[in-house]
Amino acid sequence: MDPELLSEVVVDSSSALRTDNGSIHNTQFNNQEKSRRGDLLLAYKTLGVVFGGLVTSPLYVYPSMPLKSPTEDDYLGIYSIMFWTLTLTGVVKYACIALNADDQGEGGTFALYSLLCRNMNIGIISRKQSSSIVPNGRRKQSALGKFFEKSIIAKRVLLFIAILGMCMLIGDGILTPAISVLSAMDGIRGPFPSVSKSLVEGLSAVVLLVLFLLQKFGTSRVSFLFSPIMGAWTFCTPIVGIYSIIRYYPSIFKAISPHYIFHFFWKNGKEGWLLLGGTVLCITGSEALFADLGHFNRRSIQIAFLFTIYPSLVLTYAGQTAYLINNPNDHDDGFYKFIPTKIYWPIFIISTLAAIVASQSLISATFSVIKQSVVLDYFPRVKVVHTSPNKEGEVYSPEVNYILMILCVAVILIFGDGKDIGNAFGVVVILVMLITTILLTLVMIIIWRTPFYLAGLYFTVFFVMEGVYVSAVFTKIPQGGWIPFAISLILACIMFGWFYGRQRKIEYELTYKITLDRLGQLLSDPSVQRVPGLCFFYTNIQDGLTPILGHYIKNMKSLHKVTIFTTLQYLLVPKVAPHERIVINKLGIRRVYGCVIQYGYADRLNNEGDDIVRQVIESLQEHIQDYSGCIPSNPSEIQEQISDLQEAREVGVVHVRGKTRFHIGKSCGWFDRIMLAFYEVLHSNCRPALPALGVPLTQRIEVGMLYEA
Length: 709
Hints:
Blueprint: H1 3-49, H2 52-55, H3 72-97, H4 109-119, H5 143-150, H6 152-185, H7 197-213, H8 226-248, H9 259-268, H10 270-274, H11 276-279, H12 287-291, H13 298-326, H14 344-375, E1 385-386, E2 395-396, H15 398-414, H16 418-448, H17 452-473, H18 482-511, H19 516-523, E3 529-538, H20 547-556, E4 558-571, H21 578-581, E5 582-589, E6 592-600, H22 609-630, H23 635-651, E7 653-663, H24 670-685, E8 700-708
Parallel strand pairs: 3-4, 3-7, 4-6, 7-8
Antiparallel strand pairs: 1-2, 5-6
Helix pairs in contact: 1-8, 1-13, 3-9, 3-13, 4-16, 6-7, 6-14, 6-15, 6-16, 6-18, 7-15, 8-13, 8-14, 16-17, 16-18, 18-24, 22-23
């Protein structure tokens, strides 16, 4: 080849290579740019969903403190405590550590528990049932993990802690709307001192009644307003804070020095310790950083908190403290008093709207927690409605909504004093944080394999800090702090009673299950007929068939021509991949199949019964064809199986489930008598499982049977 031509080819090739490399570089840059923009947009949206409770806390922190003739040093010490609480808990614990402990994108105390269950054999769902989502090549279990796997007491304690965390979050859904709206509406009394406290309580109750009554319409139509409202609040309050700092006490940030904390406790002793019950409210809603992780992503929440929420709260509390140093007796109305007169009403309107948005965020979170608990069989079945066709996490439960409404309004009307509600709120806030600390430490040691000294340092710092807060808020139990304990105790009894009864039923079914050999014997009886039609026979166990089947065949003397034994299997994962949702297997008996429908706790159950039937039949047809490909079989036989399936569907579909009750005999112990009787009360008043799948009433058959307890 001509050397000149060769050099041209080389030059052209290198130019093309540079062009390709440049194109790849540009593509990567564009993708990174889109990712940054996406994170910033999500960070903006988190303002209206995640941080409502946290960023509105200045409304009620100072009014909740029982201050008596506070001095400048007292206020500097209080601000120093709040600054370091926000920094250690908000920045270090949640933004930097907890957000990394997600369970496939989901956060919260229950996600931590499910993460531990999936890595240790301690949960209600066995490894066999959740094998599709347990990672391969698991490392050897740690000593602490082995202890939890062997100790039944440790398993129960861990389960109780997780249940308590869920109950406390539900209690948060009652107290946040009450204290937020009441504190915001109390601003009316500033310009109009003649307005009575009872009138403010009545107006707050009306606002909450309207808010709860609007829940059934969902938040999709108004959610676009949430972020602008919270954005306005987040940026207005620190501006007022800066103005207050400049005007009243420019050197306020010297209180960042921890020595003000030591001086505060040295001077005030027990009184200073008791004030922690009020200062803990500055971190109200911090659990939402972690709990709402599934709706956004780690980076967007970190950006929003570190660059907007955290600076906003630091400046707002600094401004409030600066004002109170010069006006020490205004602490009972520590928020509205430090607002300049000229912007009082705009701030009042923004604060009221922000309180409503914060309330909505906690109400929605409560619905979500209840839904997850129902899905995992920890809570009696209640109606769950998806209010948005596009957002699976947007749910509504009528029963839960009206119970929340009654309790929330009752809290305002009975305990109208903001201090009493603040006392109750402090108990909820700190116990949820303490539970997160315990579970997160276990995740560090058992799953992350964090060096023991680092995990110990984390546990020591936060357990001691939160333990001191707990000791302070527990003194407030007679003054309103008993409210969340009463609510949580009732909920925990309901959850434990339901869980205990469900476990006893499963134990009975496993003991008296119908094996495939026994089913073959039952069907070989000449008096048993195979009637036309397609039957979905629901069973709670996979290793065998429910004893209700034997009861049904013995009494009805029939079984449908095509019968699919169906198990609804809820896995300890947020979502199950579509191709893993329906698992089909042949049972070795002609026209009898097994089917497992798998869901995660954040999955949306399909509300169309016909759609479930269609999905199962399609999966079954694929299974028949794939199975015949693995094992040589007659093509006519395959076609016959498929045509039998289609013919049975055309004749009619029926869904059969058991309606079982416990027969409590004289041999039962007192504990079983109480728990199973309580379970029967819950079971008789909850919704059946089939309506959750949208099965039409005309296609449902319930077979009654007594289980010997």
